[in-house]
């Protein structure tokens, strides 16, 4: 494969990555990617070395916190279900009029422990609510201006390599009507 064809493949991949970044500009928490290039075999041409997820350390930490919040929300739903069961247990106890001192004390302690656990969960929820709302309001980390510049650069590099490949093929006697 000629160096120009390698470059066309590499630049095409870079263009697809940039297009994906632009397409996800409004996706909450999206971290854009970039393409790192390396020199091709025998020191000729260029190829994709790797595709790297961008984003600062702080952005990655925020994404980890978001995932932790999602887990907490699942646990919170579970606690709400337990809280409803606790209410039903209390209502049943009141309705049945269970007045046995030892049994009532044990049940009350269990209910107090459950109420305390629910209170702590509520405190944690409300303490994180503002932070959660800020995170959810944040769009992706995609910089549209930088992506547009990359896409224009990719277009120019692609066109230059297509012209070079066309010229090379013409010199070898092969006619290519259009490559681009």
From TrEMBL:
Residues 53-85, 92-107 have a biased composition (Basic and acidic residues). It holds the Pfam family Flg_bb_rod. Residues 14-30 form the Flagellar basal body rod protein N-terminal domain. Residues 53-107 are annotated as: Disordered. This is Flagellar basal body rod protein N-terminal domain-containing protein.
């Amino acid at each position: 494969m000629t160096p120009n064809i390698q470059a066309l493949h590499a630049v095409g991949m870079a263009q697809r990555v940039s297009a994906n970044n632009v397409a996800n500009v409004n996706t909450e928490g999206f971290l854009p990617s970039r393409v790192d290039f390396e020199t091709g075999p025998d020191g000729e041409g260029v190829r994709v070395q790797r595709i790297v997820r961008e984003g600062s350390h702080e952005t990655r930490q925020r994404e980890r916190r978001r995932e932790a919040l999602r887990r907490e929300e699942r646990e919170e739903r579970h606690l709400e279900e337990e809280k409803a069961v606790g209410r039903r247990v209390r209502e049943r106890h009141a309705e049945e009029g269970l007045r046995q001192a030892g049994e009532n004390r044990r049940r009350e302690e269990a209910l107090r422990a459950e109420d305390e656990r629910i209170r702590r969960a509520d405190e944690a929820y409300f303490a994180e609510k503002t932070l959660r709302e800020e995170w959810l309001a944040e769009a992706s980390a995609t910089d549209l201006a930088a992506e547009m510049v990359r896409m224009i650069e990719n277009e120019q590099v692609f066109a230059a390599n297509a012209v070079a490949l066309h010229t090379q093929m013409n010199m070898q006697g092969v006619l290519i009507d259009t490559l681009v």
